Amino acid sequence: MLNILKMAAKNLARYRRRTLLTSILITLGVVAVLLFVSVSGSFKAMMIGQITDSMLGHLQIHRKGYLASIDSLPLNKNITQKQLNKVEEILAAEEAIESYTMRIKLGAMFSNYAETTNIRLNAVTPDRELQSMPLLADRVIKGEKEGLLAKGEILLPELIAKGMQVKVGDSIVLVANNKDGSVNGQSFAVRGILEGITGPGGRDGIMHMEDARELLRIEEMEVSEIAIRLKNIDQMGVVFSSLQEKLGAMTNKEGKPVFEIHTWEKLSPFYNIAKMIDLMTLFIKIMLVAIVLVSIMNVMIMAVYERVNEIGTIAAIGTRPGKILALFVTEGFLLGILGTMVGTIISLIAIAGMNASKITFDFGRQTGLQLTPTIDSAEVITVVLIVIGIAVLGSLQPALKAARMDPITALRHV
Amino acid sequence: MPLVEAKQLEKTYVSGDIEIKAIRGVDLTIEPASFVSFIGPSGSGKSTLLNMIGCLDPPTSGQLTVAGQDITKLDRNTAADFRGNTIGFVFQDFNLIPVLTVYENIEYPLLMVQKLPAPERKKRVFALLEAVGMADQAAKYPSQISGGQKQRVAVARALVTNAKLVLADEPTANLDRDTANRVIDMMKQMRDEFQTTFIFSTHDPKIVKNAEIIYTIEDGKLQRTINENGGNHA
User: In this structure, is residue B232 part of a structural domain?
Assistant: First the structure.
């Protein structure tokens, strides 16, 4: 095998310019793929992190049918105290769950004493919310972040605060309908202004759970949703299935399930963007495969064509067809290795360079997001194996042609 | 026991509806350590006969035995192994591998075909380099040596495997007269030294003059002549 490798390397060195051009082409392809994967992967991970760690959590539990009517924020589809106890028992048994937070989602009339508008609010228990949504505090762009908020305080979404000309420390009034249809009003101090983010609930205000219960005259504990944070997002599928099975076993008198559980992917439109990124990555990989396949096949077809007489000679003096095949496949393999190695090294240097230069970008209303491209070794190994595999595959057809060549015909070739 | 024995050997090529009988019922016997020449006009079947003996082209019918092995129905791998171990080839255009040095070209069949250990390879290659007078050119590439030197290397490559038979197709066609003479002399010397049989397909009167047995091929048929003066060239 070593002799075949040496011989293949000598043959590649024979056509130096062609070998160089093909290797550069493969190198460029590898660099394009690895950089795209690292940058898009970093962007995706960052956006998913923003969404799950500041708003949605990894999983959410609601009463069955709540999500279908979420636009009207129905209070009569809240999870009751009794149901909540059962859910909490199930959640406590799941080791993969790091924490969870409970929310009452409500709509209210918002008044600054001069004007009135509608507002959507999440009522939360601040400690639990901060534990489950570690990036939430970062969304507070004005006002005190520490502790999120206290009873009697409210965090206003950026657009409403701007539209209603409300500042931190101002007093406002919320008026809401309770489940029975009666109206109640309460005044609050503006604790801070929240940055809006993409997706459901991204432009909702936040108030204290106890305030919401008072405003809505809810006596027993009840919540609209439970947002769950997992220790590791990679376990989401497993935990989802487990919870779905356990919660699905809880049925009402009609035998229908009481709860519904969703992953963040079902709740956020960003999931579609994430899928698009995955799809684009796939297309880029397909392009790389095409580049490698076409360039290697082209070079190897030329190599076979130019060396017909030589193939005839080595066949005549006793080289087995299998060895001739191996010789040409090894040439393709070495070309793949060369292009991949150089491409990988350049990509890793470029990724390190991008991280060092601290590139920032804006996404929607979020500005100054720092790009921190990373690439895991599994992705690098996958790309390397794909390129080398395709290089071997691309050289297989010309190599087979060489191996099957009739020595006499080959020797007569001029 | 004869080295090459053919009985009623035939080769027919089919091109569309046309059948071309290149070799017609040839009987032939060649003894070990012979210096044999196939002569005849172009298209007479010399190369076809040489290719069949060289296990490169199977006969259409008849019997053909080389070094005691029936070579009429060998598969591609067995045929390749047989060629690598028993037969050496010298080509009109030398056919050296351009990316290999003189040393590596001679070493190639030992390395890639016979898979001999390095010390044995080295010993044999240097012995042949000395024998063909190319020891001082071992590190050069084919592009750096003359035509006559290339053919010497080709002869060394053919003999390095301890081949019992060397087939040479027009080996002097691309050489000037003096160089051709030296190459023929060297081949004869090799025959004497290694007891290898040389079979030539040629138009070159110098080779014909040196051959001990001359087979004249015409229209696919063979006529044997013993050359009493074979080897006594001027």
Answer: no
- ipTM of the complex model: 0.90
Residue B233 included in any domain = no
CB spacing of A317 vs B109 below 8 angstroms: yes
Give the pLDDT band of residue A200 (cuts 50, 70, 90): low
Nearest CB to B99: which of A3, A14, A322? Answer: A14
| Interchain proximity A322–B77, CB inside 8 Å | yes
Q: Does some domain include residue B231?
A: no
Residue in A11, A323, A408 closest to B56 by CB = A408
The end-to-end CA distance of chain B, in Å, is 32
CA distance A48 to A229: 13
**Partner residue facing B80 (CB), from A10, A320, A408:** A320
Cα separation values, B133 from A291, A353, B35, B92, Å: 50, 60, 21, 20
Name the residue facing A408 among B57, B97, B157 (closest C-beta).
Answer: B57
Residue B216 CB burial class (10 angstroms; 0-12, 13-18, ≥19): middle
Q: How far is A293 from chain B (nearest CA, A)?
A: 26
Domain that holds residue B214: 4-226
Residue A192 near residue A140, CB atoms below 8 Å: yes
Does B230 score more than 70 pLDDT? no
Name the band, by pLDDT with cuts 50, 70 and 90, for residue B234.
very low
CB contact under 8 A, B99 and A408: no
Residue A365 or B188, more confident: B188
Residue ranges covered by each domain of chain A: 2-50+272-412, 65-257
The confidence score (pLDDT) of residue B233 equals 41
Task: Give burial (CB, 10 Å; 0-12/13-18/19+) of B127.
Answer: middle
What CATH code is carried by the domain that includes residue B16? 3.40.50.300
Mutation pick from B46, B57, B87, B99 vs chain A, by most beta carbons of A within 10 Å, is: B99
Number of structural domains found in chain B: 1
Q: How far is CA B36 from CA A316, B71, B101, B161, B209, in A?
A: 20, 20, 31, 20, 10
Helix (H) or strand (E) holding B165: strand B165-169
Q: Are B199 and B117 in contact (CB under 8 A)?
A: no
Q: B154 vs chain A: nearest CA distance in angstroms? A: 11
Residue A363 is predicted with a pLDDT of 67
| Residue linked to tokens 């809810």 | A218
Q: In this complex, how many residue pairs, one in chain A and one in chain B, have their CB atoms less than 8 Å apart?
A: 67
Instruction: Name the closest residue on chain A to residue B57, using Cα atoms.
Output: A408
Q: What average pLDDT score do residues B66-75 get? A: 90
